[in-house]
Amino acid sequence: MLFEQEQILRAILAKPLASSLMVLLSNGSIVEKKTFTSNWNLYNHLEKLPVSNRFDSLIIASYKPVVISEIKSFMDGHLISFIGIILHDDEKIPLEMEYHFKNGDSLISGRSPFFVFREPGINSGKSAKKPHAAAVFLSSSTTDYISECIKLLEDAGYHVSGSKVLGKPFSTNMLTSIKEWVLTVSGTGTIALFFEMKAGNMSRLEKMTGLEVLSREDIVISIFNSRAQGSSGKLKFANALIAREKSQFRNKVQGLSRIKGGIGLKGPGETKEEERKRILKNKEKNVRLELSKENRRLSIQRKFREKRAVKSVAIVGYTNAGKSTLFNALLNRKVVKESGRFFSSIDPKIQKMTFNSHDVFLIDTVGFISDMSGEMIEAFRPTFADIASSDLILHIVDSTAKGWERKKRFVEDLLIQNGISKESIFTLFSKSDLIKIKHPVQNGFFYSSTDGEDIKRIRSFILSVLFPQEPSAGSKY
Fold it and tell me: What percent of the chain has pLDDT over 90?
């Protein structure tokens, strides 16, 4: 049961008419009630609402309409499975309830008269076919970080079967606490840890639970694997995976190898750990050789473009910021598949387009994400080379994303650390049609890829930077 109507009704009748009521619940029971003198104060409180294991549902009641933007991200970030927003009349009688209910990876939303509301039916069809993962976070995790991690799991093909917040991540009973909790989460086959844990402790947790234990980086690499299409992307994935396996090698199997003879094998006496390390070393050697060939090929292509004296524009940004959508809009054709998923492609796309009879190479690069290890960043060294050699860099920032400032700063720092000049970076804030208030910006502007005038404005800006002597280059952008 999501909630008891009689309890909620009593709480609404007890509050002042003009106030807004917030009720937090856990398994249908009220754990906290709080009233606010205005919706503005309610919004401020929700913005600062800490992530907790205390509640799993939220109900809001108000005399005036309440709107929560980016509702799924809000629910994911706060680990909430149900939200009900009740509108009441001047006698505090509930009229209508807007509801949002998480059903696996999807969201069931609707409206219903309060007194005839029925809990949405659970459809486990799609979720049952997916591997189930339980997510573990620290209490210090921000809501936008948690929302991002939940989406990573879903994009990697997992159904998030449960979530837990740890107050003290490095306490002596941490592993036992995770074990006791995860064994109560039905159907879980994987534990996803979204904080740093030593490889030895991850191995111990696997043995204690009999379940697969993955880190955030493991999940990112698995997405890379599913997205890689060309040889370049597959080699980047393989290189990142091997580096990950080397740095996070876990001694799961002890004892002597039964393998004897064969090329490159040591024979009896070699432990399973030594055998695994040797196999990894050989795989790394082969992948690095192929990656070196691929990098040389890309370098030749880059020099060819430079030799032809053709200007280039690189589109960069945090993953899922809208880079591919802008890429397609500028070309006026669908070259890159657009999706709401992270890392829709890890293979850079380069297309030639024409500006007032001038040829320009447009480069769509892989999206970045925070907490990338040095090994993962190294796998994308050619991408940084393409960006650094570009005449203009368009940094796309999702203006609707919670925590956009953090993501913007992360991408800028990453680019600068990898040899890209800050002066060549120009910021474009995407999805302007989805926001009501535009914050002040320097060295950039807002746009919508669905607005033809905005695309013309961006084209005009590109022209003014690359070809300042053009008659139309000085036009307003």
Answer: 44
